[in-house]
Specification:
With 141 residues, this protein is mainly α. Helix content is 55%, strand content 0%.
Length: 141
């Protein structure tokens, strides 16, 4: 782990980031896909989000620690968001999927009440997602 902005994390956050970084590579040193990394360390991503980091900030921390896309650039927030949603759905098939992404920007009223049922990782993934009216949202009211 590098001594960048991750030095500002509290001990629990640093431990979570260390675990993610350590799990990111194969024994031969090749980087796993972001999907595999997230699936192996979903709980650690949850710790970072619960500590107040956005997925954009997490992408920056990953880049500082050598976890980059195939093109050598930081992993886009949209790729991390998708990986998190797929990993959560696979981990809990009975879960409602990524409906929290659509509800997260609602601040009050019945939509906010529905968003309260979403976990923090789903809500953080939508930190700048626009609210969309879908039949899934309308069914929740």
């Amino acid at each position: 782990m590098t001594e960048g902005s991750d030095g500002l994390l509290p001990p629990l956050g640093r431990d979570a980031l260390r675990t993610i970084v350590a799990s990111a590579r194969t024994y031969s040193g090749r980087l796993h896909t972001i999907q595999k990394i997230v699936e192996r360390t979903l709980q650690e991503f949850g710790i970072l989000v619960a500590g107040g980091l956005t997925l954009t900030e997490i992408c920056a921390l990953l880049a500082e620690n050598g976890i980059l896309g195939k093109d050598g650039r930081p992993i886009p927030k949209s790729s991390l968001t998708s990986a998190v949603c797929r990993a959560k759905k696979r981990a809990s098939p009975a879960a409602s999927g990524c409906i929290g992404l659509q509800l997260a920007s609602a601040n009050s009223g019945p939509l906010r009440a529905a968003a309260d049922g979403c976990d923090r990782l789903q809500l953080a993934a939508a930190d700048d997602a626009p609210l969309r009216e879908t039949s899934a949202i309308l069914d929740l009211t």
